[in-house]
Amino acid sequence: MSEKNTNKKKQKARKALRLIILIIFLLFSTAIGLLHQYGKNWIPVGVDALCPFGGIESAYALITSGEMLPRIALSSFILLGAIVIIAVIFRRSFCGNVCALGTLQELFGRLGRLIFKKRPVMPSGIDKPLRYLKYLVLLAIVVFSAIYATLIIRPFDPWAAYHHLLSPELFSEFLVGFFILAASLLLSVVFDRFFCKYLCPMGGFLGIISKIGLFKVKRNKGTCIDCMACNKACPVNIPVQSLEKVTTAECIQCMECINSCPVKNTLYNEGPSKKRISPTLLIGISVLIFAAVVGSTTLTGTFKWGEVSIEEGLKKTGELDPDTITGRNTFRQVSELSGIPKEAFIERFGLSGDEFDAPIRESAHKEGSTFDTDDVKEFVREKMQR
Ligand code: SF4
Ligand code: SF4
What we know:
Elements: H1 8-38, H2 53-65, H3 74-90, H4 93-97, H5 100-115, H6 124-131, H7 133-148, H8 158-162, H9 169-173, H10 175-190, H11 194-198, H12 201-210, E1 216-219, H13 229-233, E2 267-270, E3 276-277, H14 279-299, H15 310-317, H16 331-338, H17 342-349, H18 353-357, H19 360-364, H20 373-385
Antiparallel strand pairs: 1-2, 2-3
Helix pairs in contact: 1-5, 2-3, 2-7, 3-12, 3-14, 5-10, 7-12
The site of one iron/sulfur cluster has 14 residues, from loops.
C-alpha cells in the first residue's frame, strides 16, 4: 500500500528555499558584474575570471606553457575545482542549485508556466540529437582555445553578454552572445532551461563527471502511483516515472521531482551504502562546498576578487604590467605610466586628441573601431619588450 505524503507544506518550503538560494546567487553575480562596470572605490575582477568554465578553456595553456589565457585567473580554476567536487558527490547539483544562468532560465520557465496551461514538449526526434550539441560545443571550445590560445567562446558567451548588458561593449563585442542569451531566455518560457539542455558546455562537462556522481534520484516502483507529477516537475524532461534510478547526465539534481511526489518515500536521493539524503541537505551541502572552497581560498589570498589597478601593478613591480590595463584607463594614463610616447598611440590606434584623454573603451567600442582593449595591451607589451 502506498502511503500518502502528509508533508506537502514541507515540500513547498523546500522548493521555496531552493528558489531563494538560486536568486541570492543570481543577485550576487549581477551585483559583481555591475560593480565591475561602474564601481568607483572597489572594482571586482571581470566575469571571465569568475567563470569556472574559464578553467576548462585555459587548462591546455596552463599545462603546456605554464600561463593562463588572458582574462582568466586562478579564481576560475578554484571555482572549477569546487564544482567538480560537488559533481563527484552530487552530480550536476551546481547546475540545478547554484548556477546563475540556469536560474535566469528557470525564472523565465516559471513565467511560461504562468502563461501557458499546457506547455509544448520538444519532439523526441529533435530533443535527443539536440542534447548532444552541448558536448560538441564543449569539444569545439576546448580544441579551438588550445589552438588559438584565446577565450574563443567570449563573443558567443551569453553569461558574458549578461554582464555587459549596460555596457558599450554589448553590441561591439557580445552581439552574438546577447542573441544567444535573449533566444535562450525566450525559448525557456516554452521549453524549460533551453540553454542548459542543449547548448551549455559547462553542463556537458559536468554531465560527463556526473556519471561517477555518488548520489542519484531513485524511485520505489512498489509505492509509485504513476501520477506523473515527477515528470511534470522535471525542468529537463527526464521521464522519472518510468525509471528506477535516474542515471542520465541530464539530471541537474534540482530535487523538484522529489519535492513534487505525493507519496512518501517513493522518490528519494540515495548514495553509497544506500545512504539517503534529504533534498534540503543535498542542496545545503552543495552550497556549503562551494562557499567553503571560495571562502577559504579568499582568506588565504589565492582567490582574488578585486582587480589590480594599473597604478597598484606599477607599485608592486616597478613597471607597468600590460595585463592591468582596462577599458576604464585613458590612453594618456597608459602612455604616462609606460613611457610609450603619445604619438605612438595616436598613430597605431588612429586617435583624436579627445580620444587620447578618454577611457580606452570609448574609442575601442565606438562603431567602426578596429581595435579593442586587448589590442592596446598587446601593443604596450610589444613596445615594452623592445
Ligand atoms: S530528475 Fe529530478 S532531480 Fe533530476 S533534474 Fe529532473 S526533477 Fe531535477
Ligand atoms: S511523482 Fe512520480 S514517483 Fe511519485 S508517485 Fe507520481 S509518478 Fe510515482
